[in-house]
Amino acid sequence: MAAPARKKPWTAPGDGADHLTALPLELRAQIVASLPFRQIVQMSALSRPWRHIHHHAPVVKLRLYEFVYLEDYIFDNKGRSLHGVVDEGAILGLRLALGRRARDGSASKVDTLALDYSVADPRMPRHADRLIALADAREIRVAVPHDGLNPARVPWRLDLPPAARRLNVDGEYHLAPAIAGPGAAALLSLCLDKVSLAEWPRLPSLRSLALVSVTVEAPFAPAAWCPLLEHLGVSFSTVEQARVDIRLPLLKSLDMEDVDVRPHDDSLEPFGEVTIDAPELEELVLTSTSGGTAEYRSFTLRAPRLRYLGYHNQFAGRVDVDVGRPGSVREGSISFESNEEIACPEMKLCRMQMMRMLEGLLPEVSPEDVADAARPHMTLDKYSVESFDSGKMIPEEKLTCDLSALMSSLKV
């Protein structure tokens, strides 16, 4: 009996051509942009079509800690311990590659520079400064590890190149950098993540500011250092001051989520005074999501163009709301949650604050009529949640007023 015929192994169809190299240069540059810049430079040795690929990658990623060898401990001239030996030659090679790109008239502009380096290692900032200047990117993303080499409060500086318009800094609980250089005056967007702000940078053209997990030690009065802000977001942050004073003539949106305003961390008193005076403000969201209610000494709002209000778990001893005319706010909600485990005033006090806010939203309607109009659109939900400590089910209440439905029913 003849042996069965052996099947040939399957191979993918193809003509063996290098289709990647055949792609347009701009498309190849987009494809390799996800790689570290060091690897893109190495790809330039593949063949003639790839010779200048590193002159066209829109994103330049540089992690300077990859050029530190950790086998040895050394000390600098001040006796500070430094981890490893820096491969200076490799970093200088990348600086040379970026310098040649900057001088190549046919090269593409760098859109984004993503740079990771240690500001606590005194050998790194000079390389970082030069790389930032050579790249001259429109967007700069800086990540600074908290490596324990030196105290996290070491001051550092970012000199922005002329093309810079967007800056994102992940500081890993260092001090925020001093922002300077020719790009500082033209910067449009800034995001600071996990830093301590001891002094605000002066950014006269800034339009958008985001603070995430930031400890603000300086007075919080943004009009003094970025008067043209249109969008401001502050989340999971602490303001170590007695006041938040937001008076911005061009501000259009403000989002404050889990922001603690008090001058002393160990105090339980509601020291914070929050004032918002923004004639162009259209959207305002203030909320506490961390399982409790933020308490302020006072909350003052002046926003004649306000259209959307989301106000959740923010209790204030004094409330003054002025939106200019009745029915200005068309959408949103006000709500408070309370149970025996989370820090929250009694629900009757929350209801009183809600009514004061509604009276401010409807300035030409009598308090009695406001109460009658709001009643159908206010709900008090009662339910049980699991205790954080014991695991037992405990009762919780949530009082909500649907502003969208209320304003629609009034037809003002």
TrEMBL record:
UniProt superkingdom: Eukaryota
Domain F-box/LRR-repeat protein 15/At3g58940/PEG3-like LRR: 190-313
InterPro entries (UniProt xref): F-box-like_dom_sf, F-box_SCFL_complex_component, LRR_FXL15/At3g58940/PEG3-like
Any Pfam family hit: LRR_At5g56370
PANTHER family: OS06G0556300 PROTEIN, OS11G0201299 PROTEIN
Record's protein name: F-box/LRR-repeat protein 15/At3g58940/PEG3-like LRR domain-containing protein
Organism, scientific name: Panicum miliaceum
